[in-house]
Amino acid sequence: MKTDVLISGGGIGGLTLALKLARCGIDVTVIERLPGPSPVYKGELLQPKSLDIFDSLGVIEPVLSHGHRIAELELVELKGKRAEHSSMSYSILPGKYPYSLMIHHEKLKDILRAKGEEYSSFHYMGNTACKKISGKTVTVEDRSEKEPFDIECEFIIGAEGRSSVTRDYMGIEVSERKYNHHFLTVTFPRPLDMTKGRIVSTYQSFLGLFPLPNEEVRSVYLIPAGEYKSLRKKPISEFHKLYIDLCPDLEGYVDQITEWKQIQLMVPMKYHADTYVKDHLALIGDAAHTVHPMAGEGMNMAIQDGSVLGELLCDMYASGRLDPANLEWYPKVRKRRVSHQLHLSHLSALAYSYPYRPVGWLRNKSLQRMEKDRVSQFKQMLNISGLGMWRETLYDRMVQGGLFPLRKSFLSNEEKLGASFTEEQDYPWKEKEELI
Ligand SMILES: Cc1cc2nc3c(=O)[nH]c(=O)nc-3n(C[C@H](O)[C@H](O)[C@H](O)COP(=O)(O)OP(=O)(O)OC[C@H]3O[C@@H](n4cnc5c(N)ncnc54)[C@H](O)[C@@H]3O)c2cc1C
């Protein structure tokens, strides 16, 4: 069997890339080892840049209609019976989609796959695992027949998530950074009026609530690393109590979780491969980098990788310039952006990691000042949205810490748009006509 581009892994990253290539008429084959939907929770929050990308791929309508829009995040810090509120708003951002969107992970995969199947050059092989790579030959195994067979291709993309056969073949090692905490994560019915994202914390606890469509809410609750086993030995009512103590509105809702086995343990980690490309092979998404989930970036980074690499491959095929050296444009665009998002998510993780009152106090103060200081809020939302990258300066940190006064200035729409990535920054090889 032959194909132009073989993608190992049919997660969100692999499917985004495959759809992009199929739309350009490139023959693309996705190999996915799972036979059907995965029961495992994964990323469900789409940032504005991902919505722009899905718009360009012709799937924005089904994505929006199966998602729940979140324009604002409410941040509640509890101090005994007192609650201090702040908020961060996507509406400060320019562009067509000034909000994020919660969508069931498997639903999003269905939408991308269904769109792909409209193109004759799109091939999807479920229940089939990539076993071995040798030059431009990939040995795959249909898991029901246990019969390995070879696929010949021009380019191989590793999109297998955290444990990547392609990354191993490329000889790329990643060093994992672990955290002092884990998360419990589960979806359950929500009160109808819970429509905004909400983070409730005390100096020693954290609960994130992200509304999904169909009156459900995805939750993440922070626990110290290693505590999961002892928690599971307790009655499930102990789990309900952890949630209701932080958010009494959940009484009558979280109690609909009846068994610990419905709740998944999520172990956050962070790594970043030194390089994403070697000869005719490239890595995207979690195969190349994994991010702490605090800022909801993992799935979005995979989508953004797929979009940039997809555009590059489309241009290479359109111009007939298939030298693998051209692939280097992809990490040139993506690596710096990924590093910045890894760093921001890491800082957010640290802000909630240490159960000491001064840390909680400083976090709450910074968040309240960030809400009032429009420049700080804009930078924060721009960075997590994926629409642009505007590094925070020492001055910004001083303002947020209360050492310098809040800025009265507002950013004009032109200034905001000027901070967003341009087409030339997203796809620099186009302007320079440097494909070889
Ligand atoms: C358990 C878990 C929970 C998560 N929860 C959150 C969250 O709450 N919020 C958040 O922002 N992010 C979360 N993430 C991260 C986010 O889901 C990922 O960043 C995102 O899914 C990455 O997309 P991807 O396409 O790169 O990889 P994946 O989504 O991991 O997809 C990889 C695909 O490749 C397939 N595959 C693997 N090996 C092979 C092989 N040899 N041959 C063929 N197919 C193969 C897998 O079956 C899988 O379908 C979570 C990740 C994990 C692992």
Automatic annotation (TrEMBL):
<keyword id="KW-0560">Oxidoreductase</keyword>
<dbReference type="InterPro" id="IPR002938">
    <property type="entry name" value="FAD-bd"/>
</dbReference>
<dbReference type="Pfam" id="PF01494">
    <property type="entry name" value="FAD_binding_3"/>
</dbReference>
<protein>
    <submittedName>
        <fullName>FAD-dependent oxidoreductase</fullName>
    </submittedName>
</protein>
<dbReference type="InterPro" id="IPR036188">
    <property type="entry name" value="FAD/NAD-bd_sf"/>
</dbReference>
<dbReference type="GO" id="GO:0016491">
    <property type="term" value="F:oxidoreductase activity"/>
</dbReference>
<feature type="domain" description="FAD-binding">
    <location>
        <begin position="2"/>
        <end position="339"/>
    </location>
</feature>
<dbReference type="GO" id="GO:0071949">
    <property type="term" value="F:FAD binding"/>
</dbReference>
<dbReference type="InterPro" id="IPR050631">
    <property type="entry name" value="PheA/TfdB_FAD_monoxygenase"/>
</dbReference>
